[in-house]
Each structure stands twice: as structure tokens, then as C-alpha cells.
Amino acid sequence: MLKIRRRVITSSFHPLTWWLWAVLLATTLLLAHTRAISIAIVTSTLILALSMQRQTAGFHTFRWALRFAVIAFCFRMSIAIIIGVPMPGRTIFTLPQLQLPDFLVGIRIGGPVTTQRLLSGFDEAVLLVALILIFATANALSNPHGLLRILPKRFYGLGLAGVISTSVAPQAVRGIERVRSARRLRGQSSHGIRSWRGVALPVLEDSLERSIDLAAGLESRGYGYFPRPTRYRPDAWKFRDTLAISGGLYCLLIVIASPSSMIVAPILVALFVLTPVFSS
Amino acid sequence: MITFTNVSLIYPNSNKTIIENASFSVNEGELVLLMGHTGAGKSSVLKLINGLVPHHTGGILSGDISVAGRSTRLMKPGELADVVGIVGQNPINSFVSDIVEDEIAFGLESLGVVPEIMRKRVEEVLDLLALAPLRKRFIAELSGGEQQRVAIAAALVTNPKVLLLDEPTSALDPIAAEEVLSILHRLVHDLGLTVIVAEHRLERVIQFVDRIILVHGDGTLELGSTSAILENSPIAPPLVELARTLQLSTIPLSIREFRKIAPRIESAMQELSSISPKPRGPIAVSMRNVSASYRDAQSSYALADINLEIHEGEIVALMGRNGAGKTTLLKAAVGMSPIIHGEVMVAGRNPTSFKDQELITYVGYVPQEPSDLLYGHSVKEECELADRDNAVPQGKTLEIYTSLMKIPNLDAHPRDISEGQRLGLALSIILSASPKLVILDEPTRGLDYESKKILVTNLKRIAHRENRSVFISTHDVELVADVADRVIFLADGEVIADGTTRQVLTASPAFAPQVSKALPHTQWLTVSEVERHVNEN
Question: Is residue B381 situated within a structural domain?
Fold first, then answer.
């Protein structure tokens, strides 16, 4: 049950803004592939998403994306510690090593864990977290339904698929919460891996059903059937959209211009990621 | 306006014919009710009219359907969008925008209406459905009735010739339902719109409709005038059953018509006053000065200073408008509402202190969507899982389920069985742990009269024979009249009435059952009470 509240939409961005921004930042991240830039992006997207949360309806999803990011980080780190090729560096501790057959030369499970091995694992893990957070922020701050309206008719199928896929995540999140509380009602714990089946199945079925309903709704209202759709209230490209995009663009340029800078570049990137905060 | 010629429909991977050789036509400006048991194929008939069946769902269609001269065989639902508007069972699922105004404009945008005309149309529809004050609001934050109105507005804005509605009032409280139906009535009369409504709660719609299509469930359809169909139909609202019991010569369709022809019954008052109240059992649930919020402690109160007690062996109904705090109150009894202050006690303990397995032996809770509780692949597997989860002997859940449902289909997937059977399954799972308190949140959504009767018998057995407490929240006045011993009425998170069913229901006309409206001087609530009186005299 939702509380009825009068909410004014103070600042809204163009539906494309956040997705362009996400693509720019993801490119920056992958091009740079340095620890400092990854950490800079993780912290600044976190600040950005948390400071703008009050203006969005889709923010709920972000918290779940955060959990997912933490799990991904832990998983990547433990893989890095357990499995890998021998790496130089100071040995921090040694795990019991598993004897592997001869044809798997070079790979080992367990064994000494060196600083180098930990750091390279950490780099990969942070990169993963940064990627997840970039797209989670874009998803939380943008409106999936907005995209549908601005796509031209020839991308009808694309728009339909886009809307359905972007609305699945928030729906699944709401579904997970509902089903988890239902599990408590059945006297089952909703934590731990063993509960996944009881949660995942109803949530998936439910999300699928909703998506089919949405597609039927679009279809029966003539979406994509008539030659020239018009706009009731066109989404104007405003200054704040340009600001957000240029922030992403500058990040990319900084990384291309000075790929080896360890201190200045990350600070600049972090600042530019935050430009949308100042615009609203 | 709508013509069915020898229409037959069968869905893929199924050997049941949904519709067989149906031919009928509906004229312009008619309000037609689609009536039938759950799963009889009402929704399929609606979706056939705008082409969603078979174009969207699949299925084999023979014969021809024409709507405003266009054949749905040749045209896809999108191409019919300018003549047919449809409002689905769960409008919240098919909304494509977040803001009321944008949602309403969406249909016009797709049709390519020029912006000047679009603005005018949107304004007209906003006024027509009294949505102007809500135009900039988030749809997700509106109440059920408001969402239903937005969905109707979004379907009407393109000026369709035909409007199709699938259970438009099932989620609404009596007052919101009345509002939506009178708007439909006005649209038919003012604009000559053709409206087809599928609805279970006949007592709400019957007075507004011109004709009825009865979907028999064996594939045959029957179209006839309202009184002709109701005279012999197995499905009938309480008013019609009352007329049958009193052996009236004509079938009244509204309270006004009934009062014109009804005999006066005098002795009823005395009979009722001679019934002594049942002795009350020990207290099962108590709430003392409970205040709670929706999500967290910062948001505003959903419940304010609630004081109530529920005794063993008692069926208590919780009523009130959409958004009055009913679900929050029910959830407080399982320790799932954020209590700000006050004390909730279930069997002398705070429900938040129950551990996983302990909870189900004290409280059984069937949520608004019973399917949230289900995750098996078949009904049988579901029952076995429940036996294991509840740590009860093998076969107990199945035994309860077969005793609740007459013809259980054990191999079907829990998503494919009817709404009533799904509710029965969820209830059996809950009951197999033998809880002291059984809670049901809005159990009658989408239930037909027959499934409701089964539910009533079962709840009475649970409470009166097995001596458990039943706490049930519902908008369904007729169900409350049938089943409840006591009614608690919530408004804005406060208890505004708490008394016996008879006291509370006869006190306000909006929440009175049809029998009590028809025979106001008798204080009777249900047809069975009248029947007993008739048999005795």
C-alpha cells in the first residue's frame, strides 16, 4: 500500500541523458583500467545516486544493485585468492594447495597468496563494481517509459524490448520483497542460498506476467501502428542534460589525454561525474 | 457495433474449447455485462473483441468478429486502437508512463493526433473522470480507485466507439466502485459509447446494464435481456436470490424496483432480538495503542492508536476505504508492520519474537496475492512441499485441500488453476500448520459466487468448529454479511466502528448488503436469514 503524497517533479532529465552518460563513463572506465579511476568512479556514482535519490521513483532498485555489487566484489575477490596462476610479490599467507593433473600446467588452486595476486584481483573486482554502479545509477535516475516515447517508429521493436527489459528490474525488486515476506508467512527463512528457489520462481513468473501485460497494453493502444506519432509534451533537451553529458565526455577526454596520471586524473574524473548534482 | 459470427476459439496446448460456435451482436450505445464463473472465458471474449486474442496470446479462431465494420481476423489490436479501448484486470501492469497526464496522452501520441487537438482531448477526459487535480501525480502513488479511473481515461481519450473493461471494480471499495460505474453509465448515455464489462460482483453492476452475455463455461454463450438471463441463471446477485426466495413474480434489478413489489415482513425484528449473543472465548489477539507506519519510522502514520481484541472462535472482518490501513493492521499481527509505539500480542506474545517455524503455528497469513506463497510445479508438489516446510505428516496438506475444494486438479500448475482454487491451496498450506489465528487479506478478488460460498463454509468451519480466530480484510460487503461475527471499520488509520456485523453494516447505507438495503426495517443481512424465516412461517 502506498502512501498518498503530493510530489512535485522538480528536475527531470531527458530520457536519453542518463544512458548516454552511462555509456561515456563505462568507456572511460574500460579505457583507463586503472585502480584509481575505478575507485574514483565508484565513490562518485555512489554520491551522485544517493544525493539525487529523492527525485526518482526508481531509486528502490539502486539499493538492490548495491547489494549485487557487494556480492560481485566478494565473489571476484575469493576467486582471485583461491584460483590463479602463480604471481610474484610478497607472500601474505598460504592456502593448502590442491594437487591438479599435469595437463593443467600453470593453474593452481590454493597455494601462496601474494600481494600482487591480491591487488590484481582487487582491480578486476573494483572495475566490475564500477560498471554495475554506473548502469544502476542510470537505471535509477532515468525513466524507462520516457525512452519509449522518443524512439522513432522504425525502432518500434527496439523500444518495446527496451521498455520491457528496463521495467523488469524494478518489478523484480518489488516482487522479491513481496515474495520474501510471503516466505516468512510460510515459516521459511528468506536468507541463504537454499531459499533461492522459493523466491526466484514466483518473482520470475510474476515479472514475466507483468511484462506480457505491458506489451498487450502497448499493442492495444496502437503503439507503433500509426504512421506519424506526435508528442503531447516533448522532452526538451535542457542545459542540465548538456551539463551531465559533458561531465561524462570530459571524463573520457581526461583519460585519453593522460592515461598514466595517478592523482590528478582520478580527482578530475570524480568531480566531473558529479556535475549533474550541481545542475539541480 | 460488435458482431460475432460462428466464432469458435481454442488455445494452443489445450483441448478445451473456450468458445464454440457463438453468434451474437451488440448494438451501439449498449452497456453489456459479461457474466460467468471464474475461468469460464470472460476475459477471452473481451480480448477477442479487440484482437488481443488470437494476435497477442495465440490460439485458433474460426468464424468472424467484426467491430465497427472491421474484422479482428485481418486487423491487429494496434490497428483497432482508434475504435476499441480496453482496460485490463490489473491496470497498474499495463501503464506505460509514471505521470497521470502522460499516461492519458499516450494513446493519442501513438495515433498521431496533432498536439492542439491532443491537449483539448486530454483536458476533456481529465474533467470527465474528475482527474484534473491528480494530473501531475505519480500513478504508483494513487489509490486503487484513482488508478482505475486513470486507466479508463487513458482508454477513452482516443474517442473509441467500444470500451471493454475486465473486472473494473474488483479491487475497489463500495464507494469507489459506485463512482466508476456511474461514470460508465453516464458515458453510455451521453456519448453513445458501447461498453462491455466483465464482472463478478453482480450486486454492483446489475442495475446499470442493458443486456447480459452469460458465458456458460462449456463454450456456449447466451445473450439476453438482464431479467431474462437472471431468471434462470445459476449465478445471481443477492437481490435476485431474495426475490426468488420470496417468490416474487418479476425479477427486480435495483433496490427501488424491489421495494415497489416487495411484501412487508413484520415479525423479523423479534426473531432477531431473541437470538442471544454467543459467549466469547479467550482473547487471541490484542492491540493496545498501536501506531504504525507504512515503510519506515519517518513516513506518516498508517495506523493511529489502534485498540482492539480478537477472541478465539471469532470471525472478524476489517473494512474501510482503499488505503485506510487495513493491510498494515493485518501485517502488525504477524510482526511485519513497523510499529512505532503500542503493543501487539498474539497468544500472549509479541509476534516479532516468533522464529521462522514458530510463526506458522500461531498465525497463518494469506496475502493479497495468494500465488506469492506458491512455488511448486504442480498442486500435488505444492502440498508435499508444504508438508515438509510445516513439519507435518505426509499428505496432510493434500487432505485439507481436497476437503476444501470439491474437484481438485492435482497435476495442474498452481498458476493455471482458477483464482478460487489458488486461494484454497494457499489456505490449505497455511491451515496444515494448525495456526491459532488465520488472516486473509482481500480474499475475494476475482472470486465468483460459487467459490465465495465455498470460502464462507470453510471459514465458518475453521472458526466455529475448530475454534480458531479468523481475521479478514475485504471490500466485499456481501461476504462480510455472510461470514463475519464482528466488523471493525477503519478510516485513515483509526478504528471508527467496532461491533457486531449487524450493528455496523446496518448503520451505514454505503456499506450495507443488498438484503439490508432491500428490507431496511428487518435488519436482515443475508438471503439465508430470509430463507429461514420463510421456511419457518
Answer: yes
